[in-house]
Protein: Ribosomal RNA small subunit methyltransferase A
Amino acid sequence: MDNFFQHKARKRFGQNFLVDENIIERIVRAIAPKESDNLVEIGPGQGAITRLLLQRCPSLTAVELDRDLIPMLKFKFRDYPEFNIIEQDALKFDFGEFAGDRPLRIVGNLPYNISTPLLFHLLSFRGAVQDMHFMLQKEVVDRLSATPGSKSYGRLSVMVQYHCRVQGLFPVPPQSFRPAPKVESAIVRLVPHAAAPHPAKDEQLLERIVNVVFQQRRKTLRNALKPLYSELDPAQLPVDAGRRPETLSVQEFVQLTDYCETLGN
Ligand code: SAM
Structure:
């Protein structure tokens, strides 16, 4: 009967379907869903992970953009009356409103073409989120967990690490998918901090500073900050103005932001 719903993978939706049962089981074991969880899967696709998630958490909600997949998902999981499929773009979905007062657990083998904007969208709901488990391009997982001074360290590393504890879990090879992606993949766990370990006085300013300086990561901090602060006195900065942005820790970015906050705009 499943053949009735033959589906050709769509590139524009980043569709690479998981077919490796061992990997699927390993992912679900890492998530360890519970019946009482407020669990949301982004991009269920043909239901590879959904099937195991539903066995443990029958009230799962799935957010899927490709409307052609919805009838198949409804049919496949017709024995789970509490299974809720929302046909929507996850980039526009209000996870905060959906969560209500029940912290969300969000999971997904994410479409790689939108993974960075989607991560930033999800971060904006961090107060409503218990944890997140994602399959991403391995290069993105490397960026999420990168340390200062490394090649992968950048805007994504600083902003995600500011808000979350990041734990790279395990790699997934291309042959675990149909069609096989051209890149290596990996599973990552993100757990939003109950309170940021080094809170910035103005988080929007932190974001603005991080954005600007990483657009010019090879410049010195003094020069990279010029688009925002042309009159900066380098001697006053809490970190050496001759350093490159890519060498600053999250804590140092916070110190820099708190100093810039005193300058006004
Ligand atoms: N979970 C399935 C699996 O592991 O086999 C499919 C994963 S596939 C990499 C990504 C899924 O996300 C597809 O089902 C795709 O249609 C869906 N998708 C793409 N863009 C989306 C968006 N903006 N919002 C919600 N789902 C999206």
